[in-house]
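Run log // design_07
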């Protein structure tokens, strides 16, 4: 059932109601919120006979496999990495697993292949300092995959055909220097490419691989026209487009005629940019969109019936089909909510057999977790801002310590569901506010554009206004407010400490930039083709020098008078360690209280379990000291 945003009256009832009958939950160990899952990311082999999944080994998530009809104890571990979690994996046929992994968070991912019966995993892209990814797994071709690599030029990616048995690489498309993406059809043929000059982007197309690419459509980056998938006869494309409209909708597009055809699906309130498809039946079966929660709209009776069947078995929870075998008879799906990290299930559609595969976090009791409620408020300039509020269980929602967590991106958004950080803080007695400030995606391009060159300004004001909104309603204690975030959210935390120095009691920046000049100077090489776009969105170091100076927290470090916790990965390719070094040095020179945590084997965020524990342990102590959390 779709939620409806509450009115101000309903919110006032919520906020000033007496405490619920629920008991205050026990103080749970920090590790319980941030441990690796017990099992995760189940995937079924194309022939429907085996399951692959991730499971901790030596504190790292490694790939395991077992027969569906066999005993779970008969599982086999295919990888043995004790340094770094496996980032992602997929079946290559029914007898091999492909996976990706970087080193120490440098994001230079390599692609590996391993057979179910050995030998050891083979690195298909064994090149230092090179970033690789899978463009097309070529599921109809058991011997090959198409890979993208920036081996020839670190700024752009070429396409290679890879022999998964020998590792032989054959370059099949050389990037001319401005291609930011490639697209194949359902036969694995390279049919489309996307080029940019930094501000404008064009769709290139060719009817067959022996023809040259021809430019079809050119748009400014502020507009969206994104092909999602070819039709199964490879004659037209399904695209997400906001051309001539505010919000993305799904259309069909004829590339041979260079013409947009039919509207497939739209929403009046949010954009739509994701589709569900059936490879077996060769059709698009549904669309996915997100209001305050994720929802489905189905075009296909069979897929709709499957969803209805699964949801009926788990009333009150969200259900997401994550994988099927080639016959679409055997299904893997996840069941989740805002108070549970979720579980994986197997369902045999013919036998109508349901089997629970795993709880991701069986050590967390749902009754101890806090609901995440969608909220909305008005910004100081009258704009409607959406977000989420998580209140501690069993406590009257009045005069609470508050932690606001601006999301990263910033071209992203928060969504409803289980959030380990929010639950961790709520368990300690804090209210947690997550704000989809202007510049967030999903609410239309006008809302996105409203965030351009507004770092530290209107975007930050939206975060501030959300905090003040809760203070005015008596939910938050004005003397116990904190701001914490990662990436852009880390910048926002530093901005909160410098630009509203009297609002917060403390701040935590996690891999957050402090100086927008050095941030823009040090972007990864493969972001270089988009530099002009970044200047339009964030600010031009030359044309907007005054703006960037004013909104870079580093240059206002003397205004910081609250305690800071700063965490940084030494190998971060997006927000270099110098970003955190600078603000820590400046704050300490001014005599401020700064806790600085650096991990030498991490990048843009801490992925190794023990490093996460160190960070959240430091945060736990920091907020206990400065917010009075339990």
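design_07 sequence
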């Amino acid at each position: 059932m779709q939620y409806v945003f509450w009115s101000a009256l309903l919110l006032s009832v919520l906020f000033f109601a007496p405490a619920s009958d629920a008991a205050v939950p026990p103080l749970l160990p920090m590790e319980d919120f941030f441990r690796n899952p017990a099992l995760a990311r189940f995937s079924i082999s194309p022939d429907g006979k085996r399951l692959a999944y991730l499971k901790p080994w030596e504190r790292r998530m490694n790939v395991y496999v077992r027969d569906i009809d066999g005993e779970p104890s008969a599982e086999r571990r295919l990888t043995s990495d004790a340094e770094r979690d496996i980032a992602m994996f997929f079946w290559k046929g029914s007898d091999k697993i492909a996976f990706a992994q970087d080193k120490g968070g440098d994001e230079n991912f390599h692609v590996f292949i391993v057979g179910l019966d050995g030998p050891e995993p083979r690195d298909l892209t064994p090149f230092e300092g090179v970033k690789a990814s899978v463009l097309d797994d070529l599921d109809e071709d058991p011997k090959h995959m198409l890979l993208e690599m920036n081996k020839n030029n670190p700024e752009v990616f070429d396409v290679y055909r890879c022999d998964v048995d020998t590792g032989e690489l054959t370059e099949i498309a050389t990037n001319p220097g401005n291609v930011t993406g490639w697209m194949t059809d359902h036969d694995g043929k390279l049919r489309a490419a996307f080029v940019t000059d930094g501000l404008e982007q064009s769709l290139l197309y060719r009817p067959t691989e022996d023809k040259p690419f021809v430019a079809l459509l050119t748009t400014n980056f502020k507009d969206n026209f994104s092909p999602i998938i070819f039709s199964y006869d490879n004659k037209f494309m399904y695209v997400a487009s906001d051309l001539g409209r505010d919000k993305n909708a799904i259309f069909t597009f004829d590339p041979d005629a260079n013409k947009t055809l039919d509207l497939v699906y739209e929403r009046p309130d949010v954009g739509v940019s994701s589709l569900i498809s059936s490879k077996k039946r060769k059709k698009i079966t549904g669309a996915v969109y997100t209001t305050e929660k994720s929802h489905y709209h189905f075009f296909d009776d069979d897929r709709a019936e499957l969803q209805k069947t699964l949801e009926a078995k788990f009333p009150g929870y969200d259900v997401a089909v994550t994988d099927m075998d080639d016959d679409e008879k055997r299904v893997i799906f996840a069941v989740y909510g805002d108070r549970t990290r979720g579980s994986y299930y197997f369902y045999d559609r013919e036998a109508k057999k349901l089997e629970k595969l795993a709880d991701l976090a069986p050590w967390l009791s749902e009754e101890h977790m806090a609901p995440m409620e969608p909220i909305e408020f008005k910004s100081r300039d009258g704009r409607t801002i959406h977000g989420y509020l998580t209140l501690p269980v069993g406590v009257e929602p009045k005069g609470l310590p508050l932690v606001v967590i601006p999301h990263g991106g910033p071209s992203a958004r928060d969504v409803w569901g289980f959030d380990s950080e929010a639950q961790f803080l709520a368990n300690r007695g804090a209210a947690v506010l997550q704000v989809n400030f202007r510049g967030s995606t999903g609410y239309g391009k006008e809302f996105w554009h409203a965030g351009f060159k507004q770092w530290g300004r209107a975007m930050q004001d939206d975060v501030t206004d959300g905090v003040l909104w809760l203070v005015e309603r008596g939910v938050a204690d004005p003397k116990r407010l904190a701001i914490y975030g990662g990436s852009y959210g880390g910048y926002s935390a530093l901005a909160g400490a410098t630009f509203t120095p009297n609002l917060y009691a403390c701040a935590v920046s996690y891999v957050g930039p402090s100086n927008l000049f050095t941030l823009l100077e040090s972007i990864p090489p493969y972001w270089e083709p988009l530099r002009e776009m970044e200047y339009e969105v964030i600010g031009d170091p030359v044309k907007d020098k005054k703006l960037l100076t004013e909104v870079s927290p580093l240059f206002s470090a003397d205004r910081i008078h609250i305690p800071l916790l700063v965490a940084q990965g030494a190998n971060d390719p997006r927000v270099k360690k110098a970003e955190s070094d600078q603000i820590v040095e400046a704050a300490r020179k001014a005599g401020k209280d700064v806790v600085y945590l650096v991990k030498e084997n991490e990048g843009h965020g801490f992925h190794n379990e023990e490093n996460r524990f160190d960070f959240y342990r430091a945060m736990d102590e920091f907020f206990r000291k400065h917010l009075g959390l339990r």
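The longest strand covers residues 476-486.
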